[in-house]
Automatic annotation (TrEMBL):
PROSITE patterns: GATASE_TYPE_2, SIS. One of its GO terms (molecular function) is glutamine-fructose-6-phosphate transaminase (isomerizing) activity. This is Glutamine--fructose-6-phosphate aminotransferase [isomerizing]. It comes from Spartinivicinus marinus. It comes from the Bacteria.
Length: 610
């Protein structure tokens, strides 16, 4: 959830860290803060103000080192006291944290019995106090040995000892003022390092970045180290050391060059990132389709040899997975079973060696999905993944790893990443039946049509419709290839506007759903030439009960009170774009109700805790 960004180098550290945090704000925007070494002490700056409009002029420090954090609250209210970074009593070090310490109450109880005082409600402060205890014991040992002060090795020992006591998926980064030391350690939650090498030695640098994702520092460098679980990275005096916590021994860092991608981070004249990212989809879909046939064929060979094919994801990614499963069934004749990652336990008994599990994720760090993948691999299943974030743990765990190439998605709602993942699914299904080239042609034609969809007339129609939806409930009905579009659309409407939206297979209408229809209830009906007769009958039944019919359709229908056009017609790849009208409707519903669609309440884009 939370975002971490640290910097050591020649530039103004405070400015660099704030800019990095702005790129990480999608991970949490309840509060943010900085830890800055000044002489031999840590100064902390914390605020509840938005990061995107951050004014750092009060922080008149131009040092070469700083640590920052943007918070999604898990333990403790959203206030300055609970805001990170948390600082030691001596102000010698400061700590930021991403994750949940599942056993923090037991650890805190032990500390309270030792008369340790707490000032916040967070599980993170428990870690700080535990490290203080470890350092105090090491300090006593040093004094006996007549050593004058704590060393980097002492800090490494203390943080590794404490980390082994923590249960759950956690990542920590600690900064020490006196030693100009930066230490990061991870288990489950993401951590990635980047350097600008100075060519003196392999692991020395002019600038170093330590962050929750690659995009946050990609404008500075593409030379990266993907920190693995139970590894600790120690950065001091222009040197990097990587330590395996299993053995407590140094290991050789595996620096690699990650692929360059489009990295713009401005609204470019748009009112919000959400509307910008929706309208970018005619550009991002072709990038997602740039998958080489050989990559797909290697995965297809594994699918053909498998007894079972499963698809998983969490939240929007699971609904995308359901849609891809439907493509594999209907286009390729492959029976694929979708499994929500957070309900994997009840399916594990069905997974056999060499089965294929396809995981969908925007961040590639979703805790529930990673947990499922790890369990499936223990049963010797093969894993394929479709991820938007380079260097993500999910990709590293995969036998077949694919990138979506949607670029940074600042809005919490998945829009362009969703259509990119659907594009992959369509290309995969068509390649199974040896229609890779024709699928590429269809996607090219789709892009041309989609580029004309985002015109002022269409946008004004959808904005006007949003003003007419004034109630607290919206229902979405469709069948076959529209069921996934309905589920994703309902989620988008809920996330952005806080309206209760729910999608049903149209066939469920007479089996209970119709009881929800009152006079004026907005009901969205998805319709094209393949289901027009069936959906016309469904719409007439809703209309008879007084429902307000909103058709998302190719053609007008006398039953529609309002109609939104499907973006693409007469193209078998059009199902990639079925989700776009509800993306736009969700955006305008949020605006009409006075909400910020980029930052829905209580949500974060990357769900790295269970």
């Amino acid at each position: 959830m939370c975002g971490i960004f640290a910097y050591i180098g020649k530039n103004n550290a405070v400015t660099t860290v704030v800019q990095g945090l702005q790129r990480l704000e999608y991970r949490g925007y309840d509060s943010w803060g900085l830890a800055i070494p000044i002489q031999n002490s840590i100064e902390v700056y914390k605020t509840l103000d938005p990061l995107q409009t951050a004014d750092i002029t009060p922080i008149d420090v131009k040092g070469a080192m700083a640590l920052g954090h943007t918070r999604w609250a898990t333990h403790g209210a959203v206030n300055i006291t609970n805001c990170h970074p948390h600082v030691s009593s001596s102000k010698q070090f400061s700590l930021v944290h991403n994750g949940i310490v599942e056993n923090y109450q037991a650890l805190k109880t032990q500390l309270v019995l030792q008369e340790v005082k707490f000032v916040s409600e967070t599980d993170t402060e428990v870690i700080v106090r535990l490290i203080e205890n470890e350092l105090n014991q090491l300090q006593l040992k040093d004094e006996i040995q007549k050593e004058s002060r704590l060393t980097p090795k002492d800090y490494q020992t203390a943080i590794s000892q404490v980390f082994k006591k923590l249960e759950g998926r956690n990542t920590l980064v600690l900064i020490c003022a006196e030693l100009q030391l930066l230490i990061g350690i991870r288990n489950g939650s993401p951590l990635i390092a980047g350097i600008k090498p100075n060519n003196i030695t392999a692991d020395s640098y002019d600038e170093l970045f330590l962050a929750s994702d690659y995009y946050s520092f990609a404008q500075h460098t593409h030379t990266c180290l993907l920190v693995n679980d139970l590894q600790m990275i120690c950065c001091e005096q222009n040197r990097v050391q990587l330590i395996d916590l299993h053995t407590n021994k140094s290991v050789e860092p595996d620096w690699q060059i990650l692929e360059r991608q489009e990295l713009e981070h401005s609204r470019e004249g748009f009112s919000h990132f959400m509307i910008k990212e929706i309208q970018q989809q005619w550009e991002t879909i072709p990038r997602a389709a740039a998958v080489e046939r050989q990559q797909l064929e290697a995965m297809i060979k594994a699918i053909n040899n498998a007894n079972n094919v499963f698809i998983t994801g969490a939240g929007a990614a699971f609904f995308i997975g359901e849609q891809i499963a439907a493509m594999l069934r209907e286009i390729a004749g492959i029976f694929a079973t979708p499994i929500p990652a957070y309900e994997s336990e009840s399916y594990l008994a069905s997974i056999e060696p060499n089965d294929v599990l396809i995981a969908i994720s925007q961040s590639g760090e979703t805790a529930d999905t990673l947990n499922f993948i790890e369990q499936a691999k223990r049963k010797r299943a093969l894993v394929a993944s479709v991820v938007n974030m380079p260097g993500a743990m999910l990709s590293r765990l995969s036998d077949f790893a694919f990138l979506s190439y949607a670029g940074p998605e600042v809005c919490v709602l998945s829009t362009k990443s969703s259509t990119s993942q659907l594009t992959f699914g369509y290309l995969l299904a068509k390649t199974v039946i040896h229609q890779y080239e024709s699928a590429k042609v269809e996607i090219e034609q789709l892009i041309h049509q989609l580029s004309h969809y985002f015109n002022d007339e269409n946008l004004q129609i959808i904005e006007s419709l949003a003003q007419k939806i004034t109630g607290d409930n919206v229902y979405l009905l469709g069948n076959r290839h529209f069921i996934g579009a309905g589920k994703i659309g309902a989620l988008n409407i809920k996330e952005a506007s806080y309206i209760h939206a729910e999608a049903f297979p149209a066939g469920e209408l007479k089996h209970g759903v119709i009881a929800l229809i009152e006079k004026g209830t907005p009901v969205i009906c998805f319709m094209d030439e393949t289901n027009a007769t069936y959906m016309t009958a469904i719409a007439s039944e809703v209309k008879a009960r007084g429902g307000m019919i909103i058709g998302i359709s190719q053609q007008p229908n006398e039953l529609f009170d309002y109609m939104l056009k499907l973006p693409v017609t007469d193209n078998s790849a059009s199902l990639i774009t079925h989700i776009i009208p509800c993306q736009l409707l969700a955006y305008y519903l949020a605006i009409q109700r006075g909400h910020n669609p980029d930052k829905p309440r209580n949500l974060a884009k990357s769900v790295t805790v269970i």
